[in-house]
Here is the input.
Amino acid sequence: MKQTKQRFAAAALAAAVCASLAGCSSPDSSSSQQSSSQPAAASSPAPSSSASSSPSEAAPEMEGNLYLQGLPIVKDPVKYSVMVSKSALDKSSSFSEKEILKEAEKATNVQFDWMEVPASGWTDRVNIVFASGDLPDAIFGNVDIVPNSRALMEVTDEMLSKYMPNLNAFLEKNPLIKAKITAPDGKIYSLPTGEDSSPWSILSDALYINTEWLNKLGASMPTTTDEFYEVLMKAKEAGDLNGNGAVDEIPFGFSELGGFSIRSMFGSFGVINTSHYNNVENGKVFFAPADERFYEGLKYLNKLFAAGLMDTEGFSQPRAQYNSKSLSDPPVYFVLSAGTIGNTVAAGQIDNYQHILPLKGPNGDQLTRRSDNSSTYAMRNMITSACQDPAPLLRWMDYCMSDVTMFLNWRQGAENVGWKWADEGKTNWTRITDPAAPGYNNNDEFRFTTGFMGETAFLYVFDEGRDISSDPLTLRKVETADAYAPYFQKEIIYTDLLQSSDVTKEITLLFADIDTYMKSFVAESVTNGIDDAKWQEHLNQLQKLKVDDYVAIYQGMYDRQPK
Here is the structure.
């Protein structure tokens, strides 16, 4: 381990005592220094209480100071310097005072000097550390991996299989997650963290309709684009549906600037207006707004707008302005775009709004937009090139993933305070959000303070014990996501996979001009109409914007990702 800053004076002293040998305070320097390339064996899938053995048992296998199985992880204590992002919700005096970390230190013999950085200043501090080259042994927090990869240690497949059996087994079952953490050069520099337990996260946007008004109109839930037009027209012609004495109802509300989009509506015509505008069919990437089906979608949306069925401010209003309408009670929107209805309409109106399934278009198309992230896992745990003895640290990270109850205690706080088992068989668990833990404003504050939350070394790798937190608003979004799932586009370009710096730069430059133009073009076409001449002008403009080059880059991205 490399001596870092004055903040790590204790670590520096320990290193001096060890004659600057890698990350240990062992009196036996030869046993404490390990090469990052040295073979290793897997740790046990669940933590054991001790690495000692009775006279009748074989002595535990070791490599120098490192036990290859069980606890402790090392015979003589080792110490690592770690820069970690500290959430504003974390009210602890320091990480070193967290009881859960103290207990882990006793169990593993792995110690830490924590360099705690407020989350608000994290990015600036990370940039300074990489620019100076004065690196800690590890960093737990968001880092731009590709441009800083030379300062990070590669975690090889051999290391994963021998030092991190729990994580390795998870990655073998989830090759897309492994692809997400793999850099363009084919190497892994950062390990994933988090829990992919949000089934609603795949949902980009949905349409919700006021069923109370629908019943007043004597109408049925629309299932096609024609039926959608007809029911919106009925709402417009009905007058005072909300009963406030004024005709202030708006048949269809949306906010392109606020993220409450009409992008998915193009799916009724066979294409999706994705955030990057590209679609995939039979492995071939194409620019959706250059497709005739996109043209048909524009004409349909203009039909709605010209009939006075869409919010005239839909393309210009920011989120706050949209919310001032959507959250009104009595409501003004009959149909509206939302990610989750619970955050978009007034509390007393939530039950009156139900999702509309993706509308079937004139040719039978019925697609909707989904998130283009491969997962919700984040890459937040890196060992740097300054670390001379990574094996114990890798084993420590895997130890944190070795038992579901331990994981939950670390991530959610103490059992029956921050979380609880939802059934006797311990097959599912749920967060406890009410009442708040004693002495805390809310349970998020409790779990960030007492646990090891935020940018952590932990990954939820367990098949059992899935989160079934029963917040009714979350369940509403889960319900909508499940209903929309059959209509998500089948072939996805995953935009969260790591790309080379050159690819990222080229995409950024091309996208800036394309996105500015496309937002203006869609708004103009929907509000003022579009014809064949304007469509041809649009196609000519796309050529000037080098859309073919842009598509080629995304084709390369798609070809490289696991299928």
Remarks:
- The CA atoms of residues 420 and 429 lie 6 Å apart.
- Residues 1-55 have pLDDT under 50 and may be disordered.
- The radius of gyration is 28 Å.
- The chain has two domains: 66-196+378-406, 204-369+489-560.
